[in-house]
Amino acid sequence: MPGESRSPPIVTITRLSPNRFDRQFQVAKPNRVWTTDITYVWTLQGWLYVAVVIDLFSRQVVGWAIDDHMRTSLCVKALQMAFWRRKPPPGLLHHHSDRGSQYASREYRRHLEVMKMEQSMSRKGNCWDNSPTERFFRSLKHEQLNYEKFKTQEAAKLSVIDYLAFYNGRRSHSILGYQTPLEFEREFYRNAA
C-alpha cells in the first residue's frame, strides 16, 4: 500500500573464492591439496547426505561426515575429521566445486582460516574442476550402493562407512600405479625417510 514502509528482503551473502586449483590433479606430496564435496543416498527413511574430504596426492578419503541434512555443519565435521587426523601444514589448498553455499558460508570459511587453509572454488557449473571427488562418488554409488533402496538411514550409513574402509585400504587405483591410497602414501613416506 502507498505510504507503508517495507523492510528490505533478507539476503544471505556468500563470498566466492577464486579457482586457484585450475585442474592440477597431480600433487607431489600429501596434505598439499584437498578436494571436497557432498553427495546423497536415498533411504526409505529419507535422504542421507555424505560429505568427504579427499587428499588429492593419494586419493585417500581423509575426512567424512554422514547425516540426514546437508547444512554447513555436515561439511565442517568432515573438514574437522580430516584436519585432526592429518594435521596439515599451513597453506594447504582446499578445493570445492560448484560453489556450494555450505563451503562459501562464513562459518566454513572461519574454520579454514583457523586451520590456515587457502580456499579455491571452481567455475560456476563446472564439475570437471573437481573430477577426482566426483569420481569417488561415482565409485561409491556404482561399486557399493548400486542404487540400492535402503530401509533405514543407519543401514545406508554403515554401507558408506564400509566402502570408505575398502576404498582407502583395498581398492587399487590406476592413477596410483594400481596401489591403494594407503599403500601409495606408505611408499611415499618410506622413500622420503
TrEMBL record:
Query: Matching NCBIfam families, A to Z?
Result: transpos_IS3 (NF033516)
InterPro entries hit by this protein: Integrase_cat-core, RNaseH-like_sf, RNaseH_sf, Transpos_IS3, Transposase_IS3/IS150/IS904
Q: Which GO terms describe its molecular function?
A: nucleic acid binding
State the organism named in the record: Candidatus Methylospira mobilis
The record, for Pfam families, names: rve, rve_2
UniProt GO BP: DNA integration
Indicate the transmembrane segments per the record: none
Return the protein name: IS3 family transposase
Integrase catalytic domain sequence ranges: 26-189
